[in-house]
Amino acid sequence: MPRPFRPRLLALMLAPLIAGALTSCHRPSEGPIAVTVIGEPPKLADPAAGPLSEAESVLLEQVAQGLVTFDSGGNIVGGLAERWNLSDDGLSYIFRIASAQWPDGRKVTAQQVARILKAEIAARSRDSLKSALGAIDDVVAMTDRVVEIQLIAPRPNLLPILAQPEFAIIRGGQGTGPFQVAEATHGERLLRREIVSSDDETTRREEYLLKAEPARAAVAGFANGATDLVLGGTYADLPYALDAKLPRSSLRFDPASGLFGLVPVKKDGPAADAAIRRLLSAALDRDAIVARLRVPGLAGRMTLLEAGLDGGIAPVTPAWLSSPLADRQAALAAEAERRFGKANPAIVKIALPDGPGSDQLFAEIVRDWAAIGVVAERPTKASEADFALIDEVAPSSSPAWFARRFHCETASPCDPAIDELLDAARQAVIPAQRYALIGQAAAKIDEAQLFIPIAAPVRWSLVGRRILGFSGNRYARHTLTGLDQKAGSDG
Questions:
Q1: DSSP-based three-state secondary structure for 410
Q2: Cα-Cα-Cα-Cα dihedral of 152, 157, 163, 169, to 10°?
Q3: 229 with 462: CB under 8 angstroms?
Q4: How far from 323 is each of 17, 73, 326, 327, CA to CA, in Å?
Q5: Under a CB-based contact definition with an 8 Å cutoff, are residues 151 and 86 in contact?
Q6: 367, CA 20 to 30 Å: which among 147, 198, 292, 316?
Q7: Buried b (16+ CB within 10 A) or exposed e, 360-369
Q8: What is the pTM of this model?
Q9: Radius of gyration over alpha carbons of the chain, in Å?
Q10: Measured between alpha carbons, how far is 313 from 399 in angstroms, rounded to an integer?
Q11: Cβ(52)–Cβ(166) under 8 Å?
Q12: Start and end residues for every CATH 3.10.105.10 domain found in the chain
């Protein structure tokens, strides 16, 4: 005779298996902290070889420090340099190199550091930030442990630029820490550093398991407890995080500074006409775009420069801002008809990165431009686009970085008159004169609408309970050192 079915007994038998399956997805409270960067698997790249991906930047920040670096709050702290001084005339930074070794045990010398920095800013270098250091006249090793950076004009914002991963000191594919790659398997890297107490009596080990994944997978991994920290989020993938079921306060935004908007990329068609660019900019409902992005505290922007930059340059807001969008749409539609004609609607193509955030942004632009009779499309090939999106975080608080992004060396279409102002500003020794020239260049960029601003860049992270020292900052740079310690603690 068969035994009767006993649901309660079956449930008791299955309970340990179910519990094990549920807990297996969650990270243990001990062992390496799991960090996922949104993007492709990172490699230890040479910044002089070309622009860095986000994952490559994160890896470089951990294993190949520069002369200086950022702490978790975006403040400048020593990297390879244990201290530094600025000359009274502001034309010379002198750095004393700490006693350090390459992974092969060889001593780090000032001569090596000077040679590597000069290579990163050389004419043949493809370092994406080398133009930000255009005021450097020379980099000289004064002794085995002292490096001098000589300038053609004072640059009070030099240190934040040197702290960027683009100026990490890397030699033969190796950096100087603070972390070392202990293991590298299956697209993951185990990063490790040993921290010796001030009395040399105790040692603490800090370990992170670093990998990269597409945004959807990274968010899902965090939601199910498989990763402790997600870095590298942008507006394009933000909806994955906003729509996921995440622990309270785990989604963090950086108060990032920089550029987020449209830039013309063709010398013909609608993008080549300054009047049409101004028309398209005036038609955007930035408040609605910001609301659609769902980022706390984010505000629309109408000018190239933002508040709080060095020099206190006050951007001149466009005249059309004095009228509400609803009141100016009729006049904008009439101007669009006059410029494009009535028979066929104007078509303007915008290249945007993939992602649900881009889909939302594009939907807002489509609606705004349709209101004045202009059709927005996303091309199948980037080469077909009239406009592309700039989504870049500023490496310092210098207004020069914002304006030089539209120098003819890197932008097309452009204005040689703007180049002349920027080149004169680079040579100016008197700060007030320099900022005045940059302000004039920025005003010309706004007037020609060489940049259609939308807002500040969006950068977000997911922060788990094991991460105690995380802090948002204007550079959206996040060192892993001390993340398992509360801010301000020793370690």
A1: coil
A2: 0
A3: yes
A4: 65, 40, 8, 6
A5: no
A6: 316
A7: bbbebbbebb
A8: 0.90
A9: 26
A10: 8
A11: yes
A12: 258-455
Where along the chain do the CATH 3.90.76.10 domains lie? 65-167
Predicted local distance difference test score (pLDDT) of residue 30: 72
pLDDT for position 232: 97
What pLDDT does residue 200 have? 66
Q: Which CATH number fits domain 65-167: 3.40.50.1980, 3.90.76.10, 3.40.50.1820, 3.30.365.10?
A: 3.90.76.10
Contact present, 59 and 477 (Cβ < 8 Å):
no
Q: Which residues are paired to 213 by β-bridges?
A: 38
Rounded CA separation 202/289 (Å): 53
Asked if residues 388 and 358 have their Cβ atoms less than 8 Å apart, the reply is no
Instruction: Report pLDDT for 345.
Output: 81
In this structure, what token pair is assigned to residue 408? 């003819």
In angstroms, the CA 452 to CA 283 distance is 11
Amino acid at 154: P
Count, residues in the chain = 491
Task: Report phi then psi at 264, rounded to 5.
Answer: -70, 140
Query: Residue 108 has what pLDDT?
Result: 95
Residue closest to 289 by CA, chosen among 277, 301, 306:
301
Q: Output the CA angle 229-192-33, nearest 5 degrees.
A: 25
Per-block average pLDDT, block size 10, for the chain (491 residues)?
43 42 50 94 90 94 95 92 96 95 92 96 94 95 97 94 96 90 87 79 87 97 97 98 96 97 93 95 97 96 95 90 92 92 86 97 98 95 94 97 94 94 95 96 96 98 95 94 68 47
| pLDDT score of 487 | 57
User: Which amino acid is located at 296 in the chain?
Assistant: P
Q: Tell me which H or E stretch contains 460.
A: strand 459-463
Nearest to 94 by CA among 145, 55, 44: 145
Nearest alpha-carbon partner for 396 in 224, 64, 155: 155
Residues 6+ apart with CB under 8 A from 49: 126
Confidence at residue 12, expressed as pLDDT on a 0 to 100 scale: 39
Task: Please report, in angstroms and rounded to a whole number, the separation of the first and last CA atoms in the chain.
Answer: 68
Q: How far is CA 146 from CA 94, 95, 110, 134, 161, in A?
A: 7, 6, 6, 22, 19
Fold of 258-455: Dipeptide-binding Protein; domain 3 (3.10.105)
Quote the Cα angle for 349-352-357, to 5°: 125
CA 214, CA 38: separation in Å to the nearest integer?
A: 5
CA atoms within 13 A on the CB side of 152: 13
User: Which pairing describes strands 146-151 and 203-213: parallel, antiparallel, or unpaired?
Assistant: unpaired
Pick from 308, 264, 295, 279: nearest CA to 413: 264
